[in-house]
C-alpha cells in the first residue's frame, strides 16, 4: 500500500514500509515478456502452449497455396502475438487472488496513480467490480440507497445479495432531456428516512459523460457514517487533465469501480476497483472479488491494465491533451453544421456539474433522423458510433483519437446533411413522442431485490401495450447502455410503456426480456 509520496524530481514512488518503485515500470508486463523470451516448454494450461497450437508446419511453409488463399491466414499470426504472453499462475507470475509479486506491484502502482489506498485488477469488467462492491456492503434484507439509473450489474449484485434498495431518481437535464445524476437533498432525505442503510451507491458519470459534483454528496453520506460507492465505469481518465472532470476518489468516494478499457488503453474487460479510507473493509472486497472473478484470470488483460496505468502515471496530461485536440477540432467544425446539435453544459440550467469532453451526444436538430438512424448513417460512412437512443447518437473520442478522425466524422455529418437536405429544414423540431425517459418517484420505499425463480412460477406474459399498472417480472435493459428501464418487482407506468414502445420502434436492442422485441413482457401474477 502506498502513501502516494514521490521523491522530489524523480519518478520514484515510495511504499509504506520503505520499498521504492519507479512509476515508469510495468511490473506485470515486464515479467510476462521475460517469460515469453525464456521460451520454456509448457506442460501447463492454456492448451495453445503460447501460440504453438496456431503454428502447424504446413501453414508455415511459404509455398503453401492453401495458406495463401485462406482469407483467415493472418489470424494465426494475430492470435500468436497475444498468446505469447497468455500464461497461467506458474512460478514467478503471481496469482491475482493472492498477489505477492508482479501483480501485487502492478496494483500498488495503480493505487498510487489513482490516489487509492488499495487497487484491485478486474478481468470481468466493471461488472465484476460492481458485483463485489455490492456484496461487500449488503447482506440479505439490508437496505442500500441506489441511484435509479445504474447499470444492470448493480441490480444483479443486489439480487445476488438479497438486499433491499431505496431508489433515488436521477435529475432530468432540461436542455437535453437526458437523465443525469441525483440531487444531494434526495440523498440526505433518503439517509434520514433509512438510517439503517448500509451505504449509498451512485453512477458517475452517466453514459453520456454527464458528471455530478460528488463533494457535497460525499460529505452528506459520511456525516451519516456511511460509505459512498461509485460506479465510475466511464471515468478512468478523470482527474488527469484540467479539461476533464474530477475523479470520484478525489471528491471523497470510498469505493470506486472503473472500466479502464472503456476510455483508457486496457483490453476489453480490463477494469479496476479502488478503495480508500476504512469505511469499507478492503479484505472483504478482496474476498468478494474472489467469488465473482475467474479463478483463471487473463494475463493479457491484467498486463494491459498495468500498461494503461503506466501511460497515465507517466504522461497522463499530455496523453489526454493529444486526444482533446481532435475533440476541439470536431466542435469547431460542428459549429458550421447547425442542423446537428451536441449535448453541452449550460451553466445554471444543466442538471450536471461537468461534462466529459471525450463524449459527443449528437442529435439531428431538425428531427428528421432519430438517434438510431443517425448512428446507422454514420456507420455507413465509416464512422462507427458507440450507441443511440431515440434522440441522440453517442460518439466517443479518447486519448487515441486524432484530428484526422474528427475530420472524417465532420465529413460524414456534412454528407448526411446533404443527402437528407437537413439545411432546408427547421432546426428547432421537438423531440419525438415517447423519446424521453419516464420520470421516477422522488424517494421510494425499499424494494426487495430477489433473483426470479428458475421455473417462472407466479408470472405470466402480457402484451406490452396492456402492461401499465402491472408489476414487472423481468429486467428490461436497452443495451447499450445497459441501464434497466424496468426492474423485477417494479410497477409499470403508462409512461414506461410508451418509452419502451418508442425504443422498440426506433431500433433499440434489449437484454433481460424473454421477448427480444418486447411485444410481450413478463409480469407477476
Calculate the mean pLDDT score and round it.
90
What level of helicity do the residues show?
A: 25-40%
Indicate the CATH architecture of the largest domain.
Answer: 3-Layer(aba) Sandwich
The number of domains: 4
Biggest sheet: strands, sense, closure? 8 strands, mixed
> What's the alpha carbon Rg, rounded to whole Å?
24 Å
Tally the beta strands.
23
What percent strand? 15-25%
> Oligomeric form of this entry?
single chain
Distance between the termini: 52 Å
Strand line-up of the largest beta sheet? 4-13-12-11-9-5-6-19
pLDDT < 50 runs, ≥5 residues: 1-9, 57-63
The CATH class name of the largest domain reads Alpha Beta
How many alpha or pi helices?
A: 15
Q: Describe the global form.
A: globular
SS content category: alpha+beta
Describe this structure in words.
With about 525 residues, the protein is of the alpha+beta class. The chain folds into four domains: about 25-90, no CATH class; about 100-315, Aspartate Aminotransferase, domain 2; about 315-425, Aspartate Aminotransferase, domain 1, CATH 3.90.1150.10; about 450-525, Alpha-Beta Complex (Ornithine Decarboxylase, Chain A, domain 4). The protein contains 15 helices and 23 strands. It is globular.
Short description:
This protein has 525 residues and is α+β, with helices and mostly antiparallel strands.
Amino acid at each position: 500500500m502506498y502513501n502516494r509520496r514521490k521523491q522530489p524530481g524523480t519518478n520514484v514512488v515510495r511504499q509504506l514500509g520503505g520499498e521504492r518503485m519507479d512509476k515508469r515500470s510495468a511490473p506485470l508486463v515486464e515479467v510476462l515478456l521475460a517469460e515469453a523470451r525464456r521460451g520454456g516448454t509448457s506442460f501447463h494450461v492454456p492448451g495453445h502452449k503460447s501460440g504453438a497450437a496456431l503454428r502447424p508446419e504446413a501453414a508455415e511453409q511459404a509455398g503453401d497455396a492453401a495458406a495463401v488463399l485462406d482469407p483467415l491466414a493472418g489470424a494465426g499470426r494475430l492470435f500468436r502475438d497475444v498468446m505469447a504472453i497468455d500464461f497461467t499462475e506458474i512460478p514467478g507470475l503471481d496469482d491475482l487472488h493472492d498477489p505477492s509479486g508482479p501483480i501485487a506491484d502492478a496494483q500498488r502502482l495503480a493505487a498510487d496513480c489513482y490516489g487509492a489506498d488499495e487497487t484491485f485488477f478486474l478481468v470481468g469488467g466493471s461488472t465484476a467490480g460492481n458485483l463485489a462492491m455490492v456484496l461487500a456492503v449488503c447482506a440479505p434484507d439490508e437496505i442500500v440507497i441506489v441511484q435509479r439509473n445504474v447499470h444492470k450489474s448493480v441490480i444483479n449484485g443486489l439480487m445476488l445479495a438479497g438486499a433491499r434498495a431505496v431508489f433515488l431518481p436521477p435529475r432530468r437535464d432540461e436542455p437535453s432531456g437526458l437523465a443525469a445524476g441525483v440531487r444531494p437533498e434526495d440523498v440526505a432525505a433518503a439517509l434520514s428516512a433509512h438510517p439503517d442503510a448500509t451505504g449509498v451507491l451512485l453512477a458517475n458519470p452517466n453514459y453520456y459523460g454527464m458528471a455530478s459534483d460528488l463533494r457535497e454528496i460525499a460529505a452528506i453520506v459520511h456525516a451519516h457514517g456511511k460509505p459512498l460507492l461509485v460506479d465510475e465505469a466511464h471515468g478512468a481518465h478523470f482527474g488527469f487533465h484540467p479539461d476533464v472532470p474530477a475523479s470520484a476518489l478525489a471528491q471523497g468516494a470510498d469505493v470506486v469501480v472503473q472500466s479502464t478499457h472503456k476510455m483508457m488503453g486496457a483490453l476489453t474487460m480490463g477494469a479496476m476497483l479502488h478503495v480508500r479510507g476504512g469505511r469499507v473493509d478492503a479484505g472483504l472486497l478482496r474476498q468478494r472479488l474472489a467469488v465473482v472473478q475467474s479463478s483463471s484470470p487473463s494475463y493479457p488483460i491484467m498486463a494491459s491494465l498495468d500498461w494503461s496505468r503506466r501511460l497515465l502515471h507517466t504522461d497522463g496530461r499530455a496523453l489526454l491533451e493529444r486526444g482533446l485536440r481532435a475533440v476541439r477540432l470536431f466542435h469547431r467544425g460542428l459549429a458550421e453544421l447547425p442542423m446537428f446539435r451536441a449535448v453541452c453544459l449550460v451553466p445554471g440550467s444543466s442538471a450536471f456539474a461537468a461534462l466529459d469532453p471525450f463524449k459527443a451526444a449528437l442529435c439531428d436538430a431538425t428531427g428528421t433522423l432519430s438517434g438510431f438512424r443517425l448512428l446507422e448513417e454514420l456507420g455507413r460512412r465509416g464512422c462507427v458510433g458507440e450507441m443511440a437512443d431515440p434522440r441522440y447518437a453517442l460518439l466517443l473520442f479518447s486519448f487515441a483519437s486524432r484530428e484526422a478522425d474528427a475530420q472524417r466524422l465532420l465529413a460524414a455529418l456534412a454528407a448526411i446533411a446533404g443527402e437528407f437536405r437537413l439545411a432546408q429544414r427547421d432546426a428547432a423540431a421537438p423531440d419525438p413522442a415517447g423519446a424521453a425517459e419516464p420520470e421516477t418517484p422522488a424517494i421510494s420505499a425499499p424494494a426487495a431485490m430477489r433473483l426470479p425463480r428458475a421455473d417462472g412460477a407466479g408470472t405470466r406474459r402480457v402484451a406490452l401495450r396492456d402492461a401499465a399498472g402491472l408489476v414487472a417480472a423481468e429486467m428490461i435493459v436497452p443495451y447499450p447502455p445497459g441501464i434497466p428501464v424496468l426492474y423485477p418487482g417494479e410497477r409499470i407506468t403508462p409512461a414506461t410503456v410508451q418509452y419502451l414502445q418508442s425504443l422498440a420502434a426506433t431500433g433499440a436492442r434489449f437484454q433481460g426480456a424473454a421477448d427480444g422485441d418486447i411485444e410481450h413482457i413478463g409480469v407477476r401474477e
